[in-house]
Prior knowledge:
By secondary structure, the protein is an alpha/beta fold. Helices cover 41% and strands 13% of the residues. The strands form 3 sheets. The protein has a 6-stranded parallel β-sheet with strand order 2-1-3-4-5-10, sandwiched between helices. A 3-stranded parallel β-sheet has the order 6-7-8, sandwiched between helices. Strands 9-11 form a two-stranded antiparallel sheet. The longest helix is centred in the middle third of the chain and has 17 residues, at 212-228. It is elongated and about 85 Å long. It starts with 16 loop residues before the first helix and ends in a 9-residue tail after the last strand. This is LacI family transcriptional regulator.
Amino acid sequence: MALSQPPVPINSAATTSSEQTKATLKDVATLAGVSVATASKALNGQPKVNADTRVRVQAAALQLSYVPNTFAQSLISGKSNSIGAITSDFQGMFCTPILIGAEDELGAASNTVLLANARGDATLERNHLDYLLSRNVDGIILINDKTTPRTPMIIPNGIPAVYAYAPSTNSDDCSITSDNVGAGRMVVEHLLSCGRSKIAIIGGDQKATASGKAALDRLEGYTAALHEAGLEPAGPVRFSDWSEPWGRAATRMLLDQGVDFDAVICQSDVIARGCLDALKERGLSIPRDVAVVGHDNWMNVSLGSAPPLTTVDNNLEQIGHRAARALLDAINHKPHHGVEYVPCSLVQRESTIPRG
Length: 356
């Protein structure tokens, strides 16, 4: 079928009026009464531009509805002002807060984030990385939902990368993760301050191939703080998985075996919810008889528990902020190396009210 009208040539007079009147950087400079170079520096936030001049240039750009030509800018600067982010989290419980923190930091520096979800598949992760590199991103953030160290990606052309939550096994890479050992110490110190001294521990999954690094690091913190206080865990420390049924089963085992305990540390909020159920079904009061602490500060679980659960917040958004800042430093030829640990925070609620 023939077209009713021939295509309009790019040079045709049919170009829209908005395209004809599109403001240029030169227009902004003329209106502001400065050189084109000064206008460019002012709009790009570069230093050594007088504050009054910067305001005048910005006002001129606003008045003219000036939109920078990002392609031209990237040709001049050698940067695309875009960052690739690859996540591995099916549900987003860990990766989403990290991504929010990174986006906040990168957006403040006028960077765009291109997001891809590898869903835990190494081949898909590689394919996503190749695609992002084809888009000329300035750097890559690799976000994982576990803290178990991961194999580093091979990234060509000197493009910098930062690993968030799951550190790279290469100590020359930059990795940002949670301080789970410090979190474990903090929980025990909190329970001791509440007058508890017979502290049981219910672990998550300790398998090295899964999320075991978090479980073992937290246990290291618990036991170090207990030993410093001259104490041992109440009863055996058991591991299984991160589920509510496991929390119920492990708590029932402690009770059935006659373990004397006045507090339980659960390595996740979901485990803690199961623990609370098992304690209440045996007629125990929380926190009067037993104090309970979780980990993760998942609001739908910790606030939805009865009573509301004292827990540990991993400060995931802060991990995202730190990872983005480290990546921006690397892009500007000031790379970080090794693992940087972000402290966790204790969120006290009604499950550990101190004894009066």
